[in-house]
Amino acid sequence: MKKFSISTELYEQHRQLTRRYFRKLGITSPFIFNSTRLDDNEVTWNPNEDQIEETEYLTPADEFETIERGNPLPYKSPREKRLEIGMERETWKLNVVPDPESNSEIENLLSRANNNALDFKTLMSLAENKSVKFMKVMTCNNLSTPLGMGLWEGVPLRDVIWLAKPKENIRRVFYYGHHNNDPKQMFRSSLPIGRVLEDPPGDHPVILCYKLNNQWLSGERGGPVRMIVPEAYGFKSVKWLKSVVLRNEPAANDTYADGNNDIDSWIKSMSLFVETPTRIKSGQPIPITGMAQVGVSGLSKVQVWISPVDNKWPKEDPYFTKAPWKEASILPPPKKWGGELSSGKLPQGVRFFDKDGIPKHWPMRYTISHWAASLNNIKKGKYNLYCRTIDNNGIAQPMPRPFKKSGRNSIDVCPIEVYS
What we know:
Blueprint: H1 8-24, H2 30-34, E1 56-58, H3 79-85, E2 93-98, E3 105-106, E4 118-119, H4 120-130, E5 132-138, E6 148-156, H5 157-163, E7 166-168, E8 172-177, E9 188-192, H6 193-197, E10 207-212, E11 215-216, E12 226-228, E13 241-247, E14 270-275, E15 279-281, E16 286-293, E17 301-308, E18 326-327, E19 329-330, E20 336-338, E21 368-375, E22 381-390, E23 412-419
Parallel strand pairs: 1-20, 2-13, 15-23
Antiparallel strand pairs: 2-4, 3-7, 5-6, 6-10, 8-9, 8-13, 10-11, 10-12, 14-16, 16-21, 17-18, 17-22, 19-21, 22-23
């Protein structure tokens, strides 16, 4: 079997869902039900069919893959120190101020220096009428697999900005988290003021997030409060949020810009293999499973293609647009959402879900979706398997943005041998 880097929790969810799909097709090969997967943590799977539960979709907070910086990391400090630096809900405060180096004007600056910074109690009073909940995959633009799938809750950033009474000369919102008073440790990001104050149709608001999977946000996940930018890669969703600065600057100043990254890129749609045999006997169906990250343009189809390794593809078609792709099945949403949710049920009020917790459409943008396919009548030989997404505009991966620095979405490939 292929070796994968997908997180253990996402793998378990995926395996349960796709196993049921293949049972419906009458495929009960040892690969599907008794195979062993070894990843970096040497996780072995040999489940009994009678013990298979409904798939869980959300990643528990402590199962997220973690990308973090800071020395020391603020959430690893003793509680007394966390209280001192505002890394507990009791003492957290947020500055909302104009940039002193520009001519931005606000009438009611909120700052720790003025002893009127936004505190957690005030944030919760806003939440009584303004809180929003939505699903979002946390993903890094330079990694090939998602970090985790979460249900995030918070107050729209615009409602806090309006408390500061912005007045004049504001073009961008610049924000950063706790950095131990060391400028070299500062991790910052920014957004156009228009994106913060107004949501494009069908998009979620940018939020000051305080809950993940209906639980208070832990320090490891960026709490007490972090930014969540729904359509963006993870570097826009700054952890340990402490300051919001309104600026009259036309350009971004994100930390990630220093790494030659496209810091205004939306999440891309892309597909990854999760479980495929690397060697299988001829005459058997080849079960293939994968996961799709649903980007800003949505997800219409997932497709697979098997090609002999000695097949020389024309150089003028680097993205295999003329290949004989076959459609895979995008699997339905789970019945049990998992994470830390009680009984796996969603709380009321999740955006784009009905009162019974059923999604109003699926797949949903900025989430993940599981898929599966079966290839039949493949002759003896060595092959490469490929998979790709087709978005709701009919555009095939890796287009329309094939550039690595705007987010990875190269076509995934997996070798396989069919023997007699």
